[in-house]
Design brief:
binds beta-D-glucopyranose, alpha+beta, 16 helices
Length: about 775
């Protein structure tokens, strides 16, 4: 298979394992008591380096002489396991002693075989029904131990675990070997070095409030919605137990409300061994929560509790602060939603029975994600899953890794091919190119990109796509998912599926032409370029009236059409006027869903309608970004109205309080308000495009981003209408201050300057740029 060859070849040279994949004979299958494999081994002599290479079907945690190996969580990670399985490499020399040593590998069901997907269509044993481990210990390059038929196995204190299930642990059980192992038939060429950073624990969070509910169960508020688990220290008699339930929100009486977890049990239970203070945190699961509820049965006391957030992106690489506290909190909430949902793959949410790598969510957020954390390896790995899931007809899956590819759901068609979602295959590689100068990913993704475009061309009616509304049928689209429509007595117009799909048809085709140009595929670039022109002409003929009004006349259509150059030049001014009227007649509240939102404020700002952008952004009513922050959100909600002004929960079962998609507004804060963008001509921040749009209501703003070359900083303050803009560019980078008719009397580092058409170059280091701002009315 072409994609397979590419993805394996593109990963760093993979180790050829001579060990076997072994499975504990005592394993009773999915959802039963967990088991381990173990072996004793002798290390003779002294070695400079002893390494453990290890992977598993399911999840593993390894121990050498009773000590945990490494700090990585949920290893070997999550990939399309039929395409690749990651292995990890650890130094274990310091854990060994002369003579006999023991290695134990604990195994859990994990993504490999615990429930995937929601209750109506759950899939168990998705990638196989046998868990197993494969491992080799190498001393100075020589294999001294490997998994094989001579290993032993036994049962663990983990009585049951699952990604959605949680974990049940009986500390009275000490692991003891009871059985042998079985060698599984396993294709070792699937093994690749871990392609992204491993999931790690972040700084633990302490309770900010605790109280008892009516049934005397203690509820603890950790003050932050995140993904991870609770670590407890508990003291009590043998056989006493403690159960922990999780929730993102509380009900009206400060009681627990986790209806939105649906069939995800997300519960942890621990039975005490009675051996003094016992500390425990689950190892084969995670939950999305802010609150935990503890129920103790028998004689036991909780000595301490803490929340341990986990993430694949443990370091923050960017931030924005302004004089408005709720804005600062919104940025923090976005960072938290990214952390919580960047666990091996970019998931929609970390709590309910989904936690899937929805492609649409990932593509709308990709740019913001790269500002806030270093996501190059993370997204590259994800793209390999997306490519592995691509259908023979070119359709890209709704989510990746995609359990439905291996287990089609009868009568539900193919879960692939939605515009706005499948376009992640063009958008994400492009973002990686912009942010990291990564052209390898463009080469790697290009065949999948062209097959996606061919798919779109086939399902379209000429260049215009007319999607079906039948779920699972070719051409189905999510459109502008979760777009608010205003008061139900007088709904506002919203973009139609065909307009949204055709817009994305253009976006992806035009991006693909650019990608082809970067990687030197001139013929394809020319072909794609003319296809993009054809879609543009068809779009303009189909969706623009003679007077310059776009069909549906809604914020998403205008924002995307302007952002992507689809508004005919002759209609530019009327278009702007319509766009303004649409925002004003909505009373300055947002009218966009998943795909329209990232484009809305950038489009308005670049069109010189910063006043509207500012108004939409600072609106405190629903729908709006700051509404949820003022209602106490500590991460980004899935819906604009997840909790209504009267406290009512909208659609309690189809709701998430930790969905990063709308956090994509941070892109605007960095690029338009902060005025720094990566340059497509000199990507990876070798050149930074500089074009700040001052929003006076924010008071002051400062932004920073740690790029590969170092730290970029951009801040502005206002005195009257005079703006003081300070900039720091790292060594190896340069800036290009772009001309803007809304700026006059510009000085750079004390000198009056004229900004040429192509922009003014600024070297690395510190700069002070001052100008008079005419962007929006100043008070
Ligand atoms: C997910 C989304 C996703 C959507 C597609 C939802 O269930 O949580 O974020 O993009 O389905 O419609």
């Amino acid at each position: 298979m072409l994609e397979r060859t590419l993805s394996v070849a593109a990963s760093r040279s993979a180790r050829l394992f001579s060990a076997e994949m072994i499975s504990p004979r005592c394993d009773q299958g999915q959802g039963t008591q967990a088991s381990f494999v173990a072996s004793d081994f002798v290390v003779d002599g002294s070695f400079e380096e002893v390494k453990l290479y290890i992977s598993a079907q399911g999840l593993y945690r390894a121990f050498v002489n009773g000590q945990r190996v490494g700090e990585d969580l949920l290893t070997p990670g999550w990939t399309c396991y039929d395409d690749r399985i990651a292995y990890q490499e650890y130094d274990i020399g310091h854990m060994l002693k002369a003579g006999s040593n023991r290695i134990e590998i604990w195994l859990g069901d994990g993504w490999f075989r615990s429930q995937m997907m929601w209750v109506a269509e759950p899939i168990f044993n998705c990638w196989g029904d046998r868990i197993g481990a494969i491992a080799e210990v190498c001393a100075d390059g020589k294999i001294v131990l490997q998994t094989g038929s001579d290993w032993r196995s036994g049962l663990l204190p983990v009585m049951k675990s699952g990604i959605y299930w949680g974990e049940d642990y009986d500390a009275r059980i000490s692991p003891a070997c009871s059985d042998g192992v079985e060698i599984l038939s396993f294709d070792k060429s699937l093994l690749v070095p871990h392609e992204s950073e491993a999931v790690r624990e972040l700084e633990p969070l302490q309770p900010v409030a605790r109280w008892n509910d009516e049934a005397s169960r203690e509820i603890v508020d950790f003050g932050q919605n995140a993904a991870g688990y609770v670590r407890i220290t508990v003291d009590g008699e043998r056989g006493a137990s403690i159960s922990i339930r999780h929730s993102e929100v509380l009900g009206p009486a400060r009681d627990f409300d986790n209806r939105n977890y649906r069939s995800a049990r997300a519960k942890v239970t621990y039975i005490l061994s009675g051996s003094g203070p016992e500390t425990y945190a689950p190892m084969f699961t995670f939950m999305g929560f802010r609150y935990a509820r503890f129920k103790i049965t028998g004689n036991a006391t909780l000595r301490s509790v803490e929340m341990v957030p986990i993430s694949s992106v443990s370091k923050t690489a960017g931030g924005v602060t302004t004089d408005i506290e709720v804005v600062n909190r919104l940025v923090k909430n976005t960072i938290w939603s990214q952390r919580s949902n960047f666990i091996e793959i970019p998931t929609d949410c970390p709590q309910r029975d989904e936690r899937m790598g929805w492609t649409g969510d990932a593509q709308v957020f990709a740019n913001t994600a790269c500002w806030l954390a270093d996501c190059q390896r993370f997204f590259r790995k994800y793209l390999r899953d997306v490519i592995a899931d691509q259908r023979p007809n070119g359709a890209i899956a709704h989510f990746s890794p995609d359990p439905t590819r291996l287990h089609p759901i009868p009568g539900r068609g193919d879960w692939a091919g939605s515009t706005g979602w499948g376009d992640c295959i063009t958008v994400i590689p492009w973002q990686l190119y912009l942010h990291y100068g990564d052209s390898d990913i463009l080469h790697e993704a290009f065949p999948a990109i062209t097959r996606w475009l061919d798919y779109l061309w086939r399902i379209s009616d000429g260049p215009i796509i007319r999607p079906t509304s039948v779920w699972g049928a070719a051409g189905f689209t999510f459109g502008d998912w979760l777009q608010p429509v205003g008061d139900s007595r007088k709904p506002r117009p919203t973009i139609s599926d065909d307009c949204a799909a055709t817009l994305y048809h253009f976006i992806s085709t035009e991006l693909a032409a650019r990608i082809a140009r970067v990687i030197g595929r001139e013929d394809e670039a020319a072909h794609l370029g003319s296809r993009a022109d054809e879609i543009k002409r068809a779009f303009q003929a189909e969706y623009f009236s003679a007077s310059g009004r776009i069909a549906h006349n809604d914020m998403t259509s205008w924002a995307l059409a302007f952002e992507h150059g689809l508004v005919p030049e002759r209609h530019r001014e009327t278009g702007k006027a319509y766009f303004r009227r649409v925002v004003e007649s909505a009373g300055g509240v947002i009218g966009t869903g998943f795909i329209g939102t990232p484009a809305l404020l950038p489009a308005l700002t670049k069109l010189g309608m910063g006043d509207l952008a500012e108004r939409l952004f600072l609106n405190r009513n629903v729908p709006g970004w700051l509404y949820q922050v003022e209602r106490g959100a500590t991460s980004i909600w899935e819906r604009w109205d997840s909790i209504g002004p009267d406290g009512a929960i909208h659609s309690p079962e189809m709701n998430s309080y930790n969905h990063y998609a709308y956090g994509a507004v941070c892109q605007w804060l960095f690029e338009q308000v902060g005025g720094i963008s990566p340059s497509p001509d000199h990507p990876g921040f070798e050149e930074v495009l500089i074009d700040p749009h001052v929003m006076p209501a924010l008071g002051r703003m400062s932004s920073w981003h740690e790029c590969r070359l170092g730290r970029i900083e951009a801040s502005w303050t206002l005195i009257g209408s005079r703006v003081s803009y300070t900039l720091h560019l790292p060594f190896g980078s340069r800036g290009r201050l772009l001309p803007n008719p809304n700026r006059s009397h510009v000085t750079a580092d004390g000198q009056t300057v004229e900004i040429p058409k192509e922009g003014l170059l600024l070297g690395a280091g510190d700069h002070l740029i001052e100008f008079i701002n005419h962007d929006i009315a100043l008070v």
